[in-house]
Amino acid sequence: MKENPRLYIVIPCYNEEAVLPITAPLFQEELNLLIKEKGVASDSRILFVNDGSKDRTWELIQQYAKEDEHFIGISQSRNRGHQSTVLAGLMEAKDNCDITISIDCDGQDDIHAMEAMIDAYKDGCEIVYGVRSSRETDTWFKRTTAQGFYRVMEKMGVETVYNHADYRLVSSRVLQQFANYEEVNIFLRGMFPLVGFKSTSVYYERHERMAGESHYPLKKMIGLAVDGITSLSVEPIHLIAKMGVFLSLLGVIGIIWVLIRAFSGHTVIGWASMMCIIFFLGGIILLSLGVIGEYVGKTYLETKHRPRYIISERTEKKTK
Length: 320
What we know:
- The chain is α/β, with parallel strands linked by helices.
- It has two domains: about 5-215 and about 305-315, Alpha-Beta Complex (Spore Coat Polysaccharide Biosynthesis Protein SpsA, Chain A), CATH 3.90.550; about 235-305.
- It is built from ten helices and eight strands.
- The protein has helices at about 20-35, 55-65, 80-95, 115-120, 140-155, 170-180, 190-195, 220-230, 235-265, 270-305; strands at about 5-15, 45-50, 70-75, 100, 125-130, 165-170, 200-205, 310-315.
- It has an eight-stranded mixed beta sheet with strand order 7-5-6-4-1-2-3-8, with helices on both faces.
- Strand 2, helix 2 (about 55-65) and strand 3 (about 70-75) form a beta-alpha-beta unit.
- The longest helix has about 35 residues, at about 270-305.
- The chain is elongated, with a radius of gyration of 25 Å.
Protein backbone atom coordinates (compact mmCIF):
# COMPACT_ATOMS: atom_id res chain seq x y z
CA MET A 1 0.00 0.00 0.00
CA LYS A 2 1.49 3.35 -1.05
CA GLU A 3 2.34 5.93 1.57
CA ASN A 4 1.24 8.69 -0.80
CA PRO A 5 -1.76 7.25 -2.65
CA ARG A 6 -3.01 8.94 -5.76
CA LEU A 7 -6.63 9.93 -5.17
CA TYR A 8 -9.44 10.50 -7.65
CA ILE A 9 -12.55 12.17 -6.21
CA VAL A 10 -15.40 11.01 -8.48
CA ILE A 11 -18.36 13.41 -8.58
CA PRO A 12 -21.50 12.64 -10.65
CA CYS A 13 -23.28 15.74 -12.00
CA TYR A 14 -26.70 16.20 -13.54
CA ASN A 15 -28.05 19.73 -14.10
CA GLU A 16 -25.87 21.15 -11.33
CA GLU A 17 -25.02 24.60 -12.69
CA ALA A 18 -26.55 26.20 -9.57
CA VAL A 19 -24.47 24.26 -7.05
CA LEU A 20 -21.17 23.62 -8.86
CA PRO A 21 -19.80 27.18 -8.44
CA ILE A 22 -20.30 26.71 -4.69
CA THR A 23 -19.04 23.16 -4.17
CA ALA A 24 -16.22 22.96 -6.75
CA PRO A 25 -14.00 25.36 -4.73
CA LEU A 26 -14.80 23.35 -1.59
CA PHE A 27 -13.66 20.13 -3.25
CA GLN A 28 -10.54 21.90 -4.48
CA GLU A 29 -9.79 23.19 -1.00
CA GLU A 30 -10.31 19.75 0.54
CA LEU A 31 -8.05 18.08 -2.02
CA ASN A 32 -5.29 20.59 -1.31
CA LEU A 33 -5.70 19.87 2.40
CA LEU A 34 -5.49 16.12 1.81
CA ILE A 35 -2.32 16.58 -0.25
CA LYS A 36 -0.77 18.71 2.47
CA GLU A 37 -1.84 16.87 5.63
CA LYS A 38 -2.80 13.31 4.65
CA GLY A 39 0.02 12.50 2.28
CA VAL A 40 -2.17 12.17 -0.81
CA ALA A 41 -0.14 12.43 -4.03
CA SER A 42 0.10 15.88 -5.58
CA ASP A 43 -1.15 14.56 -8.93
CA SER A 44 -4.48 13.53 -7.42
CA ARG A 45 -7.55 14.69 -9.31
CA ILE A 46 -11.18 15.78 -8.95
CA LEU A 47 -13.12 13.93 -11.65
CA PHE A 48 -16.51 15.38 -12.59
CA VAL A 49 -18.80 13.03 -14.53
CA ASN A 50 -21.51 14.82 -16.48
CA ASP A 51 -24.67 12.74 -16.84
CA GLY A 52 -26.03 14.31 -20.02
CA SER A 53 -26.98 17.57 -18.29
CA LYS A 54 -29.28 19.97 -20.13
CA ASP A 55 -27.93 23.13 -18.49
CA ARG A 56 -24.40 24.65 -18.32
CA THR A 57 -22.95 21.91 -16.11
CA TRP A 58 -20.55 20.58 -18.74
CA GLU A 59 -19.42 24.09 -19.70
CA LEU A 60 -18.56 24.79 -16.06
CA ILE A 61 -16.61 21.54 -15.77
CA GLN A 62 -14.63 22.41 -18.88
CA GLN A 63 -13.92 25.85 -17.46
CA TYR A 64 -12.64 24.43 -14.15
CA ALA A 65 -10.39 21.97 -16.00
CA LYS A 66 -8.79 24.81 -17.97
CA GLU A 67 -8.18 26.85 -14.83
CA ASP A 68 -6.75 24.13 -12.56
CA GLU A 69 -5.03 20.87 -13.52
CA HIS A 70 -6.55 19.12 -10.51
CA PHE A 71 -9.98 19.32 -12.19
CA ILE A 72 -10.77 16.88 -14.99
CA GLY A 73 -14.09 15.78 -16.45
CA ILE A 74 -15.85 13.30 -18.68
CA SER A 75 -19.32 13.55 -20.18
CA GLN A 76 -21.77 10.79 -20.97
CA SER A 77 -23.39 10.82 -24.41
CA ARG A 78 -26.83 11.07 -22.78
CA ASN A 79 -28.51 10.93 -19.40
CA ARG A 80 -28.19 7.39 -18.01
CA GLY A 81 -28.86 7.86 -14.32
CA HIS A 82 -26.86 8.32 -11.14
CA GLN A 83 -25.61 4.74 -10.74
CA SER A 84 -24.25 4.46 -14.30
CA THR A 85 -22.63 7.87 -13.93
CA VAL A 86 -20.79 6.91 -10.73
CA LEU A 87 -19.72 3.65 -12.38
CA ALA A 88 -18.39 5.52 -15.43
CA GLY A 89 -16.25 7.71 -13.18
CA LEU A 90 -14.91 4.76 -11.18
CA MET A 91 -14.00 2.80 -14.29
CA GLU A 92 -12.36 5.89 -15.79
CA ALA A 93 -10.27 6.33 -12.64
CA LYS A 94 -9.35 2.74 -11.77
CA ASP A 95 -6.22 2.55 -13.94
CA ASN A 96 -4.98 6.02 -13.03
CA CYS A 97 -5.13 6.09 -9.24
CA ASP A 98 -4.63 4.13 -6.02
CA ILE A 99 -7.93 5.10 -4.39
CA THR A 100 -11.21 6.74 -5.38
CA ILE A 101 -13.78 8.55 -3.29
CA SER A 102 -17.22 8.95 -4.85
CA ILE A 103 -19.40 11.78 -3.55
CA ASP A 104 -22.38 13.80 -4.81
CA CYS A 105 -21.76 17.39 -5.83
CA ASP A 106 -24.63 18.97 -3.87
CA GLY A 107 -22.60 19.55 -0.67
CA GLN A 108 -24.84 17.40 1.53
CA ASP A 109 -22.16 14.84 2.34
CA ASP A 110 -19.44 16.09 4.70
CA ILE A 111 -16.32 16.39 2.55
CA HIS A 112 -14.11 16.44 5.66
CA ALA A 113 -15.04 12.78 6.25
CA MET A 114 -12.58 12.02 3.43
CA GLU A 115 -9.76 12.54 5.90
CA ALA A 116 -11.00 9.70 8.12
CA MET A 117 -11.58 7.54 5.04
CA ILE A 118 -7.97 7.93 3.94
CA ASP A 119 -6.76 7.14 7.46
CA ALA A 120 -8.81 3.93 7.37
CA TYR A 121 -7.31 3.07 3.97
CA LYS A 122 -3.79 3.55 5.32
CA ASP A 123 -4.73 1.22 8.19
CA GLY A 124 -5.47 -1.52 5.65
CA CYS A 125 -9.09 -1.09 4.58
CA GLU A 126 -9.82 -1.38 0.86
CA ILE A 127 -13.41 -0.08 1.06
CA VAL A 128 -14.57 2.65 3.45
CA TYR A 129 -18.28 3.44 3.57
CA GLY A 130 -19.50 6.94 4.41
CA VAL A 131 -22.46 6.45 6.73
CA ARG A 132 -24.90 9.04 8.05
CA SER A 133 -24.75 9.20 11.84
CA SER A 134 -28.38 10.35 12.10
CA ARG A 135 -31.40 11.52 10.10
CA GLU A 136 -32.52 14.33 12.39
CA THR A 137 -32.46 16.87 9.55
CA ASP A 138 -34.87 14.78 7.43
CA THR A 139 -38.62 15.22 7.44
CA TRP A 140 -40.67 12.50 9.10
CA PHE A 141 -41.73 11.16 5.71
CA LYS A 142 -38.17 11.10 4.32
CA ARG A 143 -36.80 9.47 7.47
CA THR A 144 -39.55 6.84 7.58
CA THR A 145 -39.29 5.92 3.90
CA ALA A 146 -35.47 5.76 4.06
CA GLN A 147 -35.53 3.45 7.07
CA GLY A 148 -38.20 1.36 5.39
CA PHE A 149 -36.00 1.15 2.29
CA TYR A 150 -33.10 -0.41 4.20
CA ARG A 151 -35.37 -2.79 6.10
CA VAL A 152 -37.00 -4.02 2.90
CA MET A 153 -33.59 -4.50 1.27
CA GLU A 154 -32.44 -6.52 4.27
CA LYS A 155 -35.58 -8.68 4.25
CA MET A 156 -35.11 -9.32 0.54
CA GLY A 157 -31.59 -10.61 1.13
CA VAL A 158 -29.70 -7.62 -0.33
CA GLU A 159 -26.55 -6.87 1.66
CA THR A 160 -26.22 -3.13 2.23
CA VAL A 161 -24.67 -0.81 4.82
CA TYR A 162 -27.42 0.94 6.79
CA ASN A 163 -27.67 4.69 6.05
CA HIS A 164 -24.96 4.48 3.38
CA ALA A 165 -25.62 5.87 -0.09
CA ASP A 166 -22.76 6.29 -2.59
CA TYR A 167 -20.20 8.21 -0.54
CA ARG A 168 -17.34 5.74 -0.24
CA LEU A 169 -13.63 5.17 -0.66
CA VAL A 170 -12.68 2.26 -2.91
CA SER A 171 -9.14 1.18 -3.74
CA SER A 172 -8.03 0.52 -7.32
CA ARG A 173 -7.37 -3.07 -6.25
CA VAL A 174 -11.08 -3.49 -5.49
CA LEU A 175 -12.10 -1.67 -8.68
CA GLN A 176 -10.02 -4.03 -10.81
CA GLN A 177 -12.09 -6.92 -9.44
CA PHE A 178 -15.33 -4.93 -9.54
CA ALA A 179 -14.83 -4.43 -13.28
CA ASN A 180 -15.62 -8.15 -13.67
CA TYR A 181 -19.20 -7.46 -12.57
CA GLU A 182 -20.71 -6.84 -15.99
CA GLU A 183 -24.44 -6.59 -15.27
CA VAL A 184 -26.36 -3.72 -16.83
CA ASN A 185 -28.78 -3.29 -13.91
CA ILE A 186 -26.56 -1.55 -11.36
CA PHE A 187 -27.08 -1.00 -7.65
CA LEU A 188 -23.65 0.01 -6.38
CA ARG A 189 -24.37 0.15 -2.66
CA GLY A 190 -25.46 -3.48 -2.82
CA MET A 191 -22.73 -4.63 -5.21
CA PHE A 192 -19.59 -3.46 -3.42
CA PRO A 193 -20.23 -5.62 -0.32
CA LEU A 194 -20.28 -8.61 -2.70
CA VAL A 195 -16.70 -7.96 -3.81
CA GLY A 196 -15.33 -8.54 -0.32
CA PHE A 197 -11.97 -7.16 0.89
CA LYS A 198 -11.45 -5.50 4.26
CA SER A 199 -13.91 -2.68 4.87
CA THR A 200 -15.08 -0.28 7.55
CA SER A 201 -17.39 2.71 7.98
CA VAL A 202 -16.86 6.40 8.71
CA TYR A 203 -19.76 8.30 10.26
CA TYR A 204 -20.69 11.90 9.49
CA GLU A 205 -23.52 14.42 9.74
CA ARG A 206 -25.35 15.14 6.49
CA HIS A 207 -26.19 18.74 5.62
CA GLU A 208 -28.87 20.47 3.59
CA ARG A 209 -28.35 20.79 -0.15
CA MET A 210 -26.34 23.98 -0.81
CA ALA A 211 -28.20 25.02 -3.96
CA GLY A 212 -30.45 23.70 -6.70
CA GLU A 213 -33.06 20.97 -6.38
CA SER A 214 -32.82 17.33 -5.43
CA HIS A 215 -32.78 14.89 -8.35
CA TYR A 216 -34.05 12.00 -6.22
CA PRO A 217 -37.79 12.40 -5.60
CA LEU A 218 -39.89 9.58 -4.12
CA LYS A 219 -40.54 8.06 -7.56
CA LYS A 220 -36.83 7.61 -8.23
CA MET A 221 -36.23 6.27 -4.72
CA ILE A 222 -38.87 3.60 -5.28
CA GLY A 223 -37.32 2.79 -8.65
CA LEU A 224 -33.89 2.48 -7.03
CA ALA A 225 -35.29 0.09 -4.42
CA VAL A 226 -36.95 -2.08 -7.09
CA ASP A 227 -33.72 -2.14 -9.13
CA GLY A 228 -31.68 -3.03 -6.07
CA ILE A 229 -33.95 -5.90 -5.04
CA THR A 230 -34.46 -7.41 -8.49
CA SER A 231 -30.79 -7.01 -9.45
CA LEU A 232 -29.33 -8.66 -6.36
CA SER A 233 -32.00 -10.93 -4.90
CA VAL A 234 -34.44 -13.62 -6.00
CA GLU A 235 -36.30 -13.51 -2.69
CA PRO A 236 -39.46 -12.01 -4.29
CA ILE A 237 -39.69 -15.12 -6.49
CA HIS A 238 -39.38 -17.27 -3.37
CA LEU A 239 -42.13 -15.26 -1.69
CA ILE A 240 -44.42 -15.82 -4.66
CA ALA A 241 -43.75 -19.57 -4.48
CA LYS A 242 -44.51 -19.59 -0.74
CA MET A 243 -47.66 -17.56 -1.31
CA GLY A 244 -48.73 -20.00 -4.02
CA VAL A 245 -48.29 -22.95 -1.66
CA PHE A 246 -50.27 -21.15 1.05
CA LEU A 247 -53.14 -20.26 -1.28
CA SER A 248 -53.18 -23.80 -2.66
CA LEU A 249 -53.54 -25.22 0.85
CA LEU A 250 -56.22 -22.63 1.55
CA GLY A 251 -58.00 -23.70 -1.63
CA VAL A 252 -57.89 -27.37 -0.59
CA ILE A 253 -59.39 -26.44 2.78
CA GLY A 254 -62.08 -24.42 0.98
CA ILE A 255 -62.94 -27.34 -1.30
CA ILE A 256 -63.27 -29.67 1.68
CA TRP A 257 -65.51 -27.13 3.41
CA VAL A 258 -67.69 -26.75 0.31
CA LEU A 259 -68.06 -30.53 -0.03
CA ILE A 260 -69.02 -30.87 3.63
CA ARG A 261 -71.61 -28.12 3.24
CA ALA A 262 -72.93 -29.71 0.03
CA PHE A 263 -73.38 -33.18 1.52
CA SER A 264 -75.03 -31.74 4.59
CA GLY A 265 -77.52 -29.84 2.44
CA HIS A 266 -76.50 -26.34 3.57
CA THR A 267 -75.18 -24.90 0.31
CA VAL A 268 -75.81 -21.22 -0.23
CA ILE A 269 -75.11 -19.47 -3.53
CA GLY A 270 -73.40 -16.19 -2.61
CA TRP A 271 -72.51 -13.62 -5.26
CA ALA A 272 -70.65 -11.29 -2.86
CA SER A 273 -68.38 -14.00 -1.42
CA MET A 274 -67.59 -15.31 -4.89
CA MET A 275 -66.64 -11.83 -6.17
CA CYS A 276 -64.42 -11.22 -3.16
CA ILE A 277 -62.53 -14.43 -3.87
CA ILE A 278 -62.18 -13.58 -7.57
CA PHE A 279 -60.88 -10.06 -6.84
CA PHE A 280 -58.44 -11.35 -4.22
CA LEU A 281 -57.00 -14.11 -6.38
CA GLY A 282 -56.99 -11.84 -9.43
CA GLY A 283 -54.94 -9.25 -7.55
CA ILE A 284 -52.49 -11.88 -6.31
CA ILE A 285 -52.05 -13.29 -9.82
CA LEU A 286 -51.43 -9.85 -11.37
CA LEU A 287 -48.96 -8.90 -8.62
CA SER A 288 -47.09 -12.18 -9.10
CA LEU A 289 -46.96 -11.70 -12.86
CA GLY A 290 -45.65 -8.16 -12.33
CA VAL A 291 -42.81 -9.33 -10.09
CA ILE A 292 -41.88 -12.14 -12.46
CA GLY A 293 -42.09 -9.65 -15.33
CA GLU A 294 -39.49 -7.45 -13.60
CA TYR A 295 -37.05 -10.34 -13.57
CA VAL A 296 -37.82 -11.36 -17.14
CA GLY A 297 -37.34 -7.77 -18.29
CA LYS A 298 -33.99 -7.46 -16.53
CA THR A 299 -32.87 -10.80 -17.95
CA TYR A 300 -33.84 -9.52 -21.40
CA LEU A 301 -31.75 -6.37 -20.94
CA GLU A 302 -28.77 -8.32 -19.61
CA THR A 303 -28.72 -10.66 -22.62
CA LYS A 304 -28.33 -7.69 -24.96
CA HIS A 305 -24.93 -6.82 -23.40
CA ARG A 306 -25.41 -3.14 -24.14
CA PRO A 307 -22.76 -0.73 -22.80
CA ARG A 308 -23.52 0.58 -19.32
CA TYR A 309 -22.21 4.03 -20.21
CA ILE A 310 -20.77 5.86 -23.22
CA ILE A 311 -18.25 8.66 -22.78
CA SER A 312 -18.67 11.26 -25.52
CA GLU A 313 -16.27 13.98 -24.33
CA ARG A 314 -13.32 14.58 -22.05
CA THR A 315 -11.97 17.85 -20.78
CA GLU A 316 -8.79 19.29 -22.20
CA LYS A 317 -5.73 19.74 -20.06
CA LYS A 318 -5.10 23.05 -18.31
CA THR A 319 -3.67 25.62 -20.66
CA LYS A 320 -0.32 27.08 -19.63
